[in-house]
Amino acid sequence: MDLPRLRRLLGTPELAWLLDRVRDRMATERPLDTRATLRAATQGQRLAVERLLGRRLRPGASLTVPLAEVDRVLRESMACPDGLAAATVVLTGPVTDRRAEEAAREAAWQRAHAELDHPAIAGRPELAAWVATVEATGLLKRLSGSDPRNAGRLAADAARVLSALPADGLTLPVLAARTLGDAHALDDGRPLAALTLSAVRALTLLAPEATATVDGRRAAWAAVGVALDELSSRVLVLGLPGGAGSTTGRMLAAARQGGEPCVLTLRQLLREPDCLAADSLHVRVCENPAVLAAAADALGSDCPPLVCVEGNPSAAARTLLARLSAQGSPLLYHGDFDWGGIRIATSVLRLPGACSWRYDTPAYLAAVERGLGTPLTGVTTAVVPTPWDPDLGPALAHHGIRVEEEHLIDRLLTDLGRDAV
Predict the structure, then answer these.
(1) Is the separation of the CB atoms in 158 and 120 below 8 Å?
(2) Is residue 18 a contact partner of residue 63, using CB atoms and an 8 Å limit?
(3) Would you tell me which of 28, 129, 224, 372 could form a disulfide with 165, CB atoms 3.0–4.6 Å apart?
(4) Does the model's pTM come out above 0.90?
């Protein structure tokens, strides 16, 4: 190879466009037996091609170069005996096989998305639509900066977090530290936080806009047993006996004696695990504060232990209920007869020793026959399972009537009064 001559013939700035065309064809494995055309060529570019080919070109605005002729010139002149393809590599560097590169990149993205096949995700039917959405919208690509290796790490980390959900009384930093080794891995603004929160929304059936605010994110995490901090997560109680060996226990005892509702924070439950009395009492659990307030008004200090989860159980509520269940206290749950209420009930009734409290098909049908309730909204595409009473979900779908807990306060107070005797 005569490198100086090759550079004079083909390596000039005026022929850079020609080498670009050749590289493009080589990168896509297309043959070099075609013509390369440059529209609006400059005089310098025309002269460079004439020097290369050793002949005058036809006048005109565009410039057409037969690549086969360039190949022949390079071989015969011995500037590059191996021809145009070899000359292009010498002058511009190795040419990447674009198709092979794209295939390798596609394989890398498939490996990244395969991390979402983790049992913590694939084993949950409620996350199937989320996985499909992540793939269809390119969420992993956006969050990873279009780097499949980063995407794979994000997906794997999200799977590790989801494998720990639902949790019982963890704060978000503790969850991140336990599952990822970094207490700040799930902080707002981090790509992993956005990806994991989108999965949490799927688990709790929340719309994307529901977590646009701090309060919305707090509620979403609380629905899977995680608190953003120890103080904002709380649970309402009434008549819950407290242990005398702790400040929180004495507070509970005083509130019970006075017949007043009491608020427990996650901080109190975590820092004083002995705040509850060791008695294995039956504990009634309701969904709405109106029930607890009515019980305080009607029964006062005679009200048996009652816990209100206030909608989706907070991390504090989950911690309290899990602790009561662990110490042998049977839990009896009642909530709204609607799809959201059923999901809340499912999270409570999976605890050992928990059972429904007037939260079954006969109780629902009796309320409907009394003319209680309003038309059901937020109808799902499939009946939400009710494993404690398989007929309840279909009955709710059939009648399409939502019966809020407040409609049934009279019946619930009767049961609480009976317990007090």
Answers:
(1) no
(2) no
(3) 224
(4) no
With CA atoms as reference, report the closest residue to 80 among 16, 2, 136, 7: 2
> How far is it, in rounded angstroms, from Cα 192 to Cα 384?
29
* Cα–Cα distance, 160 to 155 (Å, whole number): 9
**Higher model confidence: residue 124 or residue 263?**
263
Q: What is the pLDDT of residue 382?
A: 61
* Residue 100 CB coordination number (10 Å): 11
Between CA 307 and CA 354 the distance in angstroms is: 13
Give residue 246's Cα distance to chain centre: 39
Q: Among residues 186, 179, 181, which one has the least CA distance to residue 211?
A: 186
Dump the DSSP string for 140-161. HHHHTTT-HHHHHHHHHHHHHH
Q: At what angle are helices 43-53 and 67-76 packed, to 10 degrees?
A: 50
Strands 63-66, 35-38: pairing is antiparallel
d(CA 309, CA 286): 6
Query: In Å, what is the CA distance from 165 to each residue of 170, 172, 176, 308, 367?
Result: 10, 11, 12, 22, 34
Q: What is the pLDDT of residues 204-247, one digit of tens each?
A: 877 888 888 888 888 888 888 888 888 888 999 999 999 888 99
Say whether 376 sits in a helix, a strand or coil: coil
Query: What is the pLDDT confidence band of residue 249, given thresholds at 50, 70 and 90?
Result: very high
Structure tokens at 338: 């609607």
Average pLDDT for the chain:
91
Lowest mean pLDDT among 9-13, 102-106, 197-201, 280-284: 102-106
